[in-house]
Design brief:
Length: 395
């Protein structure tokens, strides 16, 4: 049975080297983020939110209300994945790197820096203190413990990171005709492309992925690395489904191609499930016409729970039936008849042994964390990014 959980990086605040207050404030004010949370609560039983500084937890309290936030945590509907580091691209041949920052003796950390690079409980308490000042000390302490108890560290060692994030990302780009051509173009078409030493990054410089589109080779490399990080988190956290940035499903195909899976088998590995023109409750939440309380009431109804169960076992041929079931799960026609329409797109994957008979017998020969997962039965559903494009739009 497919996972009831999604590792949802759309709800993960992208932090950079600037003050996290800026990124978190933009996220807090983003109506599309609120809409996404509302819609995902109707689609998945559990949302697992990757985070570095836990500001998302405090922001969700503002969006949902404290009682509903606590209820979602206690019911297991909401969890947080604490990332050990941020991803950056370092100069002088270091390339993709996980990094943290330590305070110096000369200047200590501001509170938001302590939250970014401190331990989980420390980060949670600090974010609650500054984002939710109306919560008293005693209540804040118990809430910190509650959030921490529903948080899970993303754990791996440096060898795992270098092989399955850094090296895997370089290989993904170089083995993809489109991505390698794009990386070469962004690099000025060098005779030989070295993804550990792309132009635009000084020897003593560290770059992180921005939200404004990809205009430099380091940004492309980091985009692929973040996609691989999302896949790692999905695999490590209960073999979950994953919300992936644009192009994520293409990376999955290229990984299996490198593992010498036959082209005929690849045709059956990924199929697209498109739910077209279904009502968009999230848009109503974003506009203020509906509340998260409305969404959570629907979420708890029997038809809504049954829809989420049906979606877990769906195939590409059941799209029309799923559309009907989704509309039915929203309840009275008066709720959804004026809602704008949305399109939901999933990439449905099959376990490698389902498309490659006998793959399980050769698992010891597979030199890839991702392919090994598929051979062993992992078959995530990828919720595809419909909001952001990989390339920046032409002006």
């Amino acid at each position: 049975m497919r996972s009831q959980t999604i590792v949802d990086t759309r709800l993960s605040v992208a932090l950079d080297l600037d003050t996290s207050l800026k990124a978190n404030s933009f996220f807090f004010m983003d109506p599309l983020a609120r809409a996404h949370l509302a819609n995902q609560l109707l689609i998945y039983d559990q949302l697992a939110i990757p985070t570095k500084d836990f500001a998302a937890a405090a922001i969700f309290i503002h969006w949902l209300g404290l009682k509903e936030f606590e209820r979602l945590l206690r019911s297991g509907s909401l969890a947080f994945l604490h990332r050990p580091s941020l991803l950056g691209y370092a100069g002088n041949g270091n390339g993709i790197s996980g990094f943290i920052i330590q305070p110096s003796k000369e200047s200590g950390f501001a509170w938001w820096q302590t939250a970014m690079f401190g331990h989980a409980e420390q980060a949670i308490e600090i974010q609650l203190r500054y984002w939710c000042p109306s919560i008293g000390v005693k209540q804040r302490s118990s809430l910190t413990q509650l959030i921490a108890s529903h948080s899970h560290g993303v754990e791996y060692d440096n060898d795992f990171f270098m092989k399955n994030i850094a090296h895997e990302s370089y290989t993904d780009i170089m083995q993809s005709a489109e991505l390698s051509a794009w990386a070469s173009l962004l690099s000025g078409n060098p005779r030989k492309l070295d993804l550990k030493r792309v132009p635009g990054v000084a020897p003593n410089q560290l770059k992180v992925l921005s939200s404004g589109g990809i205009t430099e080779p380091a940004e492309l490399v980091l985009h692929v690395a973040e996609t691989n990080m999302a896949l790692v988190m999905g695999r490590l956290y209960h073999n979950s489904d994953v919300w992936v940035p644009a192009g994520g499903e293409l990376l999955l195909r290229s990984k299996l191609q490198r593992a010498k899976v036959a082209p005929a088998a690849l045709e059956n590995f990924i199929s697209l499930l498109d739910l077209e023109g279904v009502p968009d409750p999230g848009a109503a939440v974003a506009s203020g016409e509906k509340s998260f309380a409305d969404i959570l009431r629907i979420r708890g109804k029997r038809l809504s729970r049954r829809f989420r169960k049906w979606l877990r076992t769906a195939d590409s041929g059941s799209a029309r039936e799923l559309e009907r079931l989704y509309v039915s799960s929203l309840g009275r026609k008066s709720f959804y008849d004026k809602l704008p329409a949305q399109s939901l797109r999933f990439a449905l994957t099959r376990a490698a042994d389902a498309v490659l008979p006998g793959a399980g017998a050769g698992v010891e020969l597979v030199d890839s964390f991702f392919v090994r997962g598929w051979v062993e039965g992992y078959s995530p559903k990828l919720f595809l990014d419909q909001l952001r494009k990989l390339r920046r739009s032409e002006s």
